[in-house]
Design brief:
384 residues; alpha+beta
Amino acid sequence: MLRSFEHKDVLMDALDNISEAFVIYDKSGYLVTCNEKFRELYGYSTEQTRAGVHFRELGELDMTLGNVVLGDEYGSGDEYLRRKDEYRKTLKGSFIVKMTDGRWIKTTDRRLSSGGFVSVQSDITDLKLNEQLLLQAKENAELANRAKSEFMANMSHELRTPLNAIIGFSSLLSSEVYGAHSDSRYKEYAGDVQNAGSHLLTLINELLDLAKIETGDIQLDEKQTDIVQLTQSCKTMVSARAMERNIKITTHIASSDLCLMADPIRLKQILVNLLGNAVKFSHPNGEVEVTWRMIGGQIELTVKDDGVGIEQEFLPHLYQPFRRSRIAQNLQYEGTGLGLTLVKRFSDAHDAELILKSKANEGTKVRLIFPSHRTVKFNEEIAS
Protein backbone atom coordinates (compact mmCIF):
# COMPACT_ATOMS: atom_id res chain seq x y z
CA MET A 1 0.00 0.00 0.00
CA LEU A 2 2.86 2.35 0.92
CA ARG A 3 4.48 1.67 -2.45
CA SER A 4 1.22 2.62 -4.19
CA PHE A 5 1.14 5.98 -2.38
CA GLU A 6 4.79 6.54 -3.31
CA HIS A 7 3.98 5.95 -6.98
CA LYS A 8 1.09 8.42 -6.75
CA ASP A 9 3.33 11.05 -5.15
CA VAL A 10 5.96 10.56 -7.85
CA LEU A 11 3.29 10.87 -10.56
CA MET A 12 1.85 14.08 -9.09
CA ASP A 13 5.34 15.51 -8.63
CA ALA A 14 6.04 14.80 -12.31
CA LEU A 15 2.73 16.37 -13.41
CA ASP A 16 3.40 19.48 -11.32
CA ASN A 17 6.72 19.95 -13.09
CA ILE A 18 5.54 19.86 -16.69
CA SER A 19 4.91 23.10 -18.56
CA GLU A 20 1.37 22.17 -19.66
CA ALA A 21 -1.81 22.18 -17.60
CA PHE A 22 -3.05 18.62 -16.99
CA VAL A 23 -6.44 17.43 -15.70
CA ILE A 24 -8.33 14.13 -15.65
CA TYR A 25 -12.14 13.79 -15.56
CA ASP A 26 -14.16 10.61 -15.02
CA LYS A 27 -16.80 9.37 -17.48
CA SER A 28 -19.46 11.60 -15.85
CA GLY A 29 -17.33 14.73 -16.21
CA TYR A 30 -16.15 15.01 -12.59
CA LEU A 31 -12.57 16.07 -11.88
CA VAL A 32 -10.27 13.27 -10.67
CA THR A 33 -6.96 15.12 -10.42
CA CYS A 34 -5.06 18.05 -11.90
CA ASN A 35 -1.63 19.59 -11.66
CA GLU A 36 -0.56 22.98 -10.29
CA LYS A 37 -0.10 24.40 -13.79
CA PHE A 38 -3.84 23.89 -14.43
CA ARG A 39 -4.67 26.11 -11.43
CA GLU A 40 -2.10 28.75 -12.46
CA LEU A 41 -3.33 28.89 -16.03
CA TYR A 42 -6.91 29.74 -15.09
CA GLY A 43 -6.46 31.32 -11.65
CA TYR A 44 -8.27 28.49 -9.81
CA SER A 45 -7.73 27.81 -6.12
CA THR A 46 -7.00 24.38 -4.68
CA GLU A 47 -10.53 24.27 -3.24
CA GLN A 48 -12.09 25.14 -6.60
CA THR A 49 -10.25 22.24 -8.24
CA ARG A 50 -10.83 19.59 -5.60
CA ALA A 51 -11.72 16.07 -6.74
CA GLY A 52 -15.41 15.77 -7.58
CA VAL A 53 -15.87 19.23 -9.14
CA HIS A 54 -17.85 18.91 -12.36
CA PHE A 55 -16.49 19.91 -15.74
CA ARG A 56 -19.36 22.39 -16.19
CA GLU A 57 -18.73 24.03 -12.80
CA LEU A 58 -15.25 25.00 -13.97
CA GLY A 59 -16.79 26.49 -17.13
CA GLU A 60 -19.13 28.58 -14.96
CA LEU A 61 -16.15 29.56 -12.82
CA ASP A 62 -14.44 30.85 -15.97
CA MET A 63 -17.43 33.15 -16.47
CA THR A 64 -17.24 34.37 -12.86
CA LEU A 65 -13.50 35.01 -13.04
CA GLY A 66 -13.88 36.65 -16.45
CA ASN A 67 -11.33 34.31 -17.96
CA VAL A 68 -12.71 33.97 -21.48
CA VAL A 69 -13.30 36.60 -24.15
CA LEU A 70 -16.80 35.92 -25.45
CA GLY A 71 -17.79 38.46 -28.11
CA ASP A 72 -17.88 37.25 -31.73
CA GLU A 73 -16.45 33.83 -30.92
CA TYR A 74 -18.96 32.63 -28.32
CA GLY A 75 -21.62 35.34 -28.13
CA SER A 76 -22.57 34.66 -24.52
CA GLY A 77 -21.61 32.65 -21.47
CA ASP A 78 -24.41 30.15 -22.16
CA GLU A 79 -23.06 29.59 -25.66
CA TYR A 80 -19.57 29.07 -24.28
CA LEU A 81 -20.83 26.45 -21.80
CA ARG A 82 -22.97 24.76 -24.45
CA ARG A 83 -20.02 24.42 -26.78
CA LYS A 84 -17.81 23.05 -23.99
CA ASP A 85 -20.48 20.42 -23.22
CA GLU A 86 -20.77 19.53 -26.90
CA TYR A 87 -17.03 19.26 -27.24
CA ARG A 88 -16.77 16.98 -24.18
CA LYS A 89 -19.20 14.54 -25.78
CA THR A 90 -17.20 14.21 -28.99
CA LEU A 91 -13.64 15.18 -27.98
CA LYS A 92 -12.82 15.74 -31.64
CA GLY A 93 -9.55 17.56 -32.24
CA SER A 94 -8.74 20.55 -30.08
CA PHE A 95 -9.98 24.08 -29.49
CA ILE A 96 -8.39 27.45 -28.76
CA VAL A 97 -9.74 30.07 -26.37
CA LYS A 98 -8.65 33.70 -26.01
CA MET A 99 -8.39 34.82 -22.38
CA THR A 100 -9.39 38.31 -21.24
CA ASP A 101 -5.77 39.07 -20.32
CA GLY A 102 -4.71 38.49 -23.93
CA ARG A 103 -3.39 34.95 -23.57
CA TRP A 104 -4.37 32.16 -25.99
CA ILE A 105 -4.95 28.69 -24.53
CA LYS A 106 -5.09 25.53 -26.63
CA THR A 107 -6.92 22.51 -25.18
CA THR A 108 -6.45 18.95 -26.44
CA ASP A 109 -8.46 16.10 -24.91
CA ARG A 110 -8.22 12.31 -25.24
CA ARG A 111 -10.76 9.69 -24.23
CA LEU A 112 -9.65 7.10 -21.63
CA SER A 113 -10.57 3.41 -21.66
CA SER A 114 -12.60 4.01 -18.47
CA GLY A 115 -14.84 6.45 -20.35
CA GLY A 116 -13.32 9.53 -18.77
CA PHE A 117 -10.90 11.84 -20.50
CA VAL A 118 -7.57 13.53 -19.99
CA SER A 119 -7.19 17.19 -20.93
CA VAL A 120 -3.95 19.04 -21.67
CA GLN A 121 -3.90 22.85 -21.99
CA SER A 122 -1.01 24.89 -23.38
CA ASP A 123 -0.34 28.62 -23.42
CA ILE A 124 0.22 29.33 -27.14
CA THR A 125 0.21 33.13 -26.87
CA ASP A 126 3.69 33.52 -28.39
CA LEU A 127 2.72 31.21 -31.24
CA LYS A 128 -0.47 33.19 -31.95
CA LEU A 129 1.40 36.50 -31.83
CA ASN A 130 3.98 35.20 -34.28
CA GLU A 131 1.17 33.88 -36.46
CA GLN A 132 -0.49 37.30 -36.45
CA LEU A 133 2.83 39.01 -37.24
CA LEU A 134 3.44 36.63 -40.13
CA LEU A 135 -0.09 37.18 -41.42
CA GLN A 136 0.35 40.94 -41.22
CA ALA A 137 3.73 40.70 -42.94
CA LYS A 138 2.16 38.56 -45.67
CA GLU A 139 -0.64 41.08 -46.18
CA ASN A 140 1.87 43.94 -46.28
CA ALA A 141 4.01 42.07 -48.80
CA GLU A 142 0.99 41.33 -50.98
CA LEU A 143 -0.06 44.97 -50.81
CA ALA A 144 3.44 46.11 -51.75
CA ASN A 145 3.57 43.58 -54.56
CA ARG A 146 0.23 44.78 -55.94
CA ALA A 147 1.43 48.38 -55.75
CA LYS A 148 4.63 47.40 -57.55
CA SER A 149 2.72 45.54 -60.25
CA GLU A 150 0.30 48.43 -60.75
CA PHE A 151 3.25 50.84 -60.96
CA MET A 152 4.96 48.60 -63.51
CA ALA A 153 1.78 48.37 -65.57
CA ASN A 154 1.21 52.13 -65.52
CA MET A 155 4.84 52.92 -66.33
CA SER A 156 4.89 50.37 -69.14
CA HIS A 157 1.85 52.00 -70.72
CA GLU A 158 3.41 55.45 -70.34
CA LEU A 159 6.71 54.34 -71.87
CA ARG A 160 5.24 52.44 -74.81
CA THR A 161 3.60 55.48 -76.43
CA PRO A 162 6.77 57.59 -76.92
CA LEU A 163 8.81 54.47 -77.65
CA ASN A 164 6.49 53.47 -80.49
CA ALA A 165 6.97 56.97 -81.92
CA ILE A 166 10.76 56.61 -81.71
CA ILE A 167 10.65 53.22 -83.44
CA GLY A 168 8.29 54.50 -86.11
CA PHE A 169 10.27 57.62 -86.99
CA SER A 170 13.62 55.80 -86.89
CA SER A 171 12.13 53.24 -89.28
CA LEU A 172 11.18 56.05 -91.67
CA LEU A 173 14.70 57.48 -91.45
CA SER A 174 16.46 54.14 -91.96
CA SER A 175 14.25 53.24 -94.95
CA GLU A 176 14.87 56.69 -96.52
CA VAL A 177 11.18 57.12 -97.37
CA TYR A 178 11.62 60.85 -98.06
CA GLY A 179 14.88 60.53 -99.95
CA ALA A 180 18.44 59.33 -99.53
CA HIS A 181 20.62 60.68 -96.74
CA SER A 182 23.63 62.79 -97.65
CA ASP A 183 25.75 60.57 -95.42
CA SER A 184 25.22 56.77 -95.25
CA ARG A 185 25.95 56.83 -91.53
CA TYR A 186 22.59 58.52 -90.89
CA LYS A 187 20.80 55.46 -92.23
CA GLU A 188 23.00 53.18 -90.16
CA TYR A 189 22.43 55.19 -86.97
CA ALA A 190 18.68 55.32 -87.59
CA GLY A 191 18.73 51.54 -87.92
CA ASP A 192 20.58 51.28 -84.60
CA VAL A 193 17.97 53.49 -82.93
CA GLN A 194 15.17 51.35 -84.37
CA ASN A 195 16.79 48.09 -83.22
CA ALA A 196 17.47 49.44 -79.72
CA GLY A 197 13.93 50.80 -79.49
CA SER A 198 12.45 47.48 -80.62
CA HIS A 199 14.51 45.63 -78.02
CA LEU A 200 13.42 48.05 -75.30
CA LEU A 201 9.79 47.70 -76.37
CA THR A 202 10.07 43.91 -76.04
CA LEU A 203 11.38 44.30 -72.47
CA ILE A 204 8.60 46.74 -71.60
CA ASN A 205 5.98 44.39 -73.01
CA GLU A 206 7.39 41.57 -70.88
CA LEU A 207 7.20 43.76 -67.78
CA LEU A 208 3.63 44.68 -68.65
CA ASP A 209 2.67 41.02 -69.10
CA LEU A 210 4.22 40.11 -65.75
CA ALA A 211 2.39 42.99 -64.06
CA LYS A 212 -0.91 41.83 -65.59
CA ILE A 213 -0.33 38.28 -64.40
CA GLU A 214 0.54 39.34 -60.85
CA THR A 215 -2.50 41.62 -60.58
CA GLY A 216 -4.78 38.97 -62.10
CA ASP A 217 -5.68 41.18 -65.08
CA ILE A 218 -4.60 38.76 -67.79
CA GLN A 219 -7.26 36.63 -69.50
CA LEU A 220 -6.90 34.06 -72.26
CA ASP A 221 -8.65 34.68 -75.57
CA GLU A 222 -8.88 31.02 -76.57
CA LYS A 223 -9.54 29.90 -80.11
CA GLN A 224 -8.56 27.16 -82.53
CA THR A 225 -4.84 27.68 -83.18
CA ASP A 226 -3.06 26.25 -86.22
CA ILE A 227 0.22 24.78 -84.97
CA VAL A 228 1.95 24.76 -88.38
CA GLN A 229 1.17 28.41 -89.03
CA LEU A 230 2.09 29.48 -85.51
CA THR A 231 5.41 27.60 -85.58
CA GLN A 232 6.40 29.11 -88.92
CA SER A 233 5.56 32.60 -87.65
CA CYS A 234 7.68 32.11 -84.51
CA LYS A 235 10.54 30.67 -86.55
CA THR A 236 10.49 33.75 -88.79
CA MET A 237 10.62 36.05 -85.76
CA VAL A 238 13.92 34.56 -84.53
CA SER A 239 15.42 33.73 -87.92
CA ALA A 240 17.50 36.92 -88.18
CA ARG A 241 19.38 36.18 -84.95
CA ALA A 242 19.74 32.52 -85.95
CA MET A 243 21.25 33.51 -89.32
CA GLU A 244 23.72 35.86 -87.63
CA ARG A 245 25.15 32.91 -85.70
CA ASN A 246 24.60 30.32 -88.43
CA ILE A 247 22.20 28.33 -86.26
CA LYS A 248 19.89 25.91 -88.03
CA ILE A 249 16.27 25.70 -86.83
CA THR A 250 14.50 22.46 -87.78
CA THR A 251 10.81 21.75 -87.18
CA HIS A 252 9.00 18.43 -86.94
CA ILE A 253 5.20 18.55 -86.74
CA ALA A 254 3.22 15.32 -86.38
CA SER A 255 0.37 16.42 -88.63
CA SER A 256 -0.37 19.35 -90.92
CA ASP A 257 -3.79 19.78 -89.32
CA LEU A 258 -2.53 19.76 -85.71
CA CYS A 259 -4.49 22.31 -83.66
CA LEU A 260 -4.76 23.53 -80.08
CA MET A 261 -7.57 25.32 -78.31
CA ALA A 262 -5.43 28.12 -76.90
CA ASP A 263 -4.76 31.82 -76.83
CA PRO A 264 -2.66 32.24 -80.01
CA ILE A 265 -0.95 35.41 -78.75
CA ARG A 266 0.16 33.80 -75.48
CA LEU A 267 1.06 30.54 -77.22
CA LYS A 268 3.22 32.51 -79.65
CA GLN A 269 4.91 34.25 -76.71
CA ILE A 270 5.69 30.86 -75.20
CA LEU A 271 7.26 29.50 -78.37
CA VAL A 272 9.10 32.72 -79.29
CA ASN A 273 10.62 32.86 -75.79
CA LEU A 274 11.68 29.20 -75.94
CA LEU A 275 13.05 29.56 -79.47
CA GLY A 276 14.75 32.85 -78.63
CA ASN A 277 16.47 31.30 -75.62
CA ALA A 278 17.51 28.23 -77.61
CA VAL A 279 19.07 30.39 -80.34
CA LYS A 280 20.64 32.81 -77.84
CA PHE A 281 22.31 30.08 -75.79
CA SER A 282 23.34 27.84 -78.70
CA HIS A 283 26.92 27.69 -79.88
CA PRO A 284 27.62 29.21 -83.33
CA ASN A 285 26.84 26.70 -86.13
CA GLY A 286 24.57 24.84 -83.72
CA GLU A 287 21.08 23.44 -84.23
CA VAL A 288 17.72 24.03 -82.57
CA GLU A 289 14.93 21.47 -82.93
CA VAL A 290 11.22 22.20 -82.55
CA THR A 291 8.94 19.17 -82.35
CA TRP A 292 5.16 18.89 -82.05
CA ARG A 293 3.72 15.41 -81.51
CA MET A 294 0.66 13.60 -80.20
CA ILE A 295 1.01 11.43 -77.09
CA GLY A 296 -2.09 9.59 -75.93
CA GLY A 297 -4.45 12.37 -76.96
CA GLN A 298 -2.18 15.09 -75.58
CA ILE A 299 -0.09 17.48 -77.65
CA GLU A 300 3.57 17.85 -76.70
CA LEU A 301 5.88 20.68 -77.76
CA THR A 302 9.64 20.13 -77.46
CA VAL A 303 12.33 22.75 -78.03
CA LYS A 304 15.86 21.37 -77.88
CA ASP A 305 19.29 22.97 -78.32
CA ASP A 306 22.90 21.85 -77.95
CA GLY A 307 24.12 25.08 -76.38
CA VAL A 308 25.75 26.22 -73.15
CA GLY A 309 23.03 24.78 -70.90
CA ILE A 310 22.18 25.73 -67.32
CA GLU A 311 24.10 24.90 -64.15
CA GLN A 312 22.26 22.46 -61.85
CA GLU A 313 22.20 24.77 -58.82
CA PHE A 314 20.20 27.35 -60.78
CA LEU A 315 17.42 24.98 -61.91
CA PRO A 316 15.22 25.54 -58.79
CA HIS A 317 15.20 29.28 -59.60
CA LEU A 318 14.37 28.98 -63.31
CA TYR A 319 10.93 30.53 -63.19
CA GLN A 320 11.61 33.32 -60.71
CA PRO A 321 11.38 36.77 -62.33
CA PHE A 322 14.58 38.72 -62.99
CA ARG A 323 16.79 35.74 -62.11
CA ARG A 324 19.54 34.85 -64.59
CA SER A 325 21.89 31.88 -64.49
CA ARG A 326 25.57 32.33 -63.76
CA ILE A 327 26.40 31.09 -67.26
CA ALA A 328 24.14 33.73 -68.84
CA GLN A 329 25.71 36.45 -66.70
CA ASN A 330 29.28 35.35 -67.38
CA LEU A 331 28.69 35.23 -71.12
CA GLN A 332 26.94 38.63 -70.89
CA TYR A 333 23.81 37.58 -72.74
CA GLU A 334 21.24 40.36 -72.88
CA GLY A 335 17.83 39.90 -71.29
CA THR A 336 15.76 40.64 -68.19
CA GLY A 337 15.33 37.13 -66.84
CA LEU A 338 11.58 37.29 -67.52
CA GLY A 339 11.34 34.94 -70.50
CA LEU A 340 10.97 31.64 -68.66
CA THR A 341 8.85 33.31 -65.98
CA LEU A 342 6.29 34.26 -68.64
CA VAL A 343 6.56 30.84 -70.29
CA LYS A 344 5.74 29.20 -66.95
CA ARG A 345 2.83 31.54 -66.16
CA PHE A 346 1.28 31.23 -69.64
CA SER A 347 1.79 27.44 -69.58
CA ASP A 348 -0.01 27.20 -66.25
CA ALA A 349 -2.85 29.31 -67.65
CA HIS A 350 -3.24 26.70 -70.42
CA ASP A 351 -3.14 23.79 -67.89
CA ALA A 352 0.07 22.62 -69.57
CA GLU A 353 2.89 20.75 -67.84
CA LEU A 354 6.30 22.38 -68.29
CA ILE A 355 9.38 20.16 -68.01
CA LEU A 356 12.89 21.56 -68.45
CA LYS A 357 16.08 19.50 -68.38
CA SER A 358 19.51 21.02 -68.81
CA LYS A 359 23.18 20.55 -67.98
CA ALA A 360 26.04 22.98 -68.32
CA ASN A 361 27.72 22.64 -71.74
CA GLU A 362 25.26 19.93 -72.80
CA GLY A 363 22.30 22.00 -73.96
CA THR A 364 18.69 22.32 -72.86
CA LYS A 365 15.49 20.44 -73.62
CA VAL A 366 12.10 21.96 -72.81
CA ARG A 367 8.87 19.94 -73.02
CA LEU A 368 5.41 21.44 -72.80
CA ILE A 369 2.52 18.96 -72.56
CA PHE A 370 -0.99 20.27 -73.24
CA PRO A 371 -3.97 18.31 -71.82
CA SER A 372 -6.18 16.32 -74.17
CA HIS A 373 -9.15 18.71 -73.81
CA ARG A 374 -7.09 21.31 -75.69
CA THR A 375 -6.55 19.04 -78.70
CA VAL A 376 -8.98 19.95 -81.49
CA LYS A 377 -9.51 18.91 -85.10
CA PHE A 378 -8.66 21.61 -87.62
CA ASN A 379 -11.73 23.37 -88.97
CA GLU A 380 -11.05 25.83 -91.80
CA GLU A 381 -14.40 27.62 -91.36
CA ILE A 382 -13.75 28.30 -87.68
CA ALA A 383 -10.11 29.22 -88.32
CA SER A 384 -11.05 31.75 -90.96
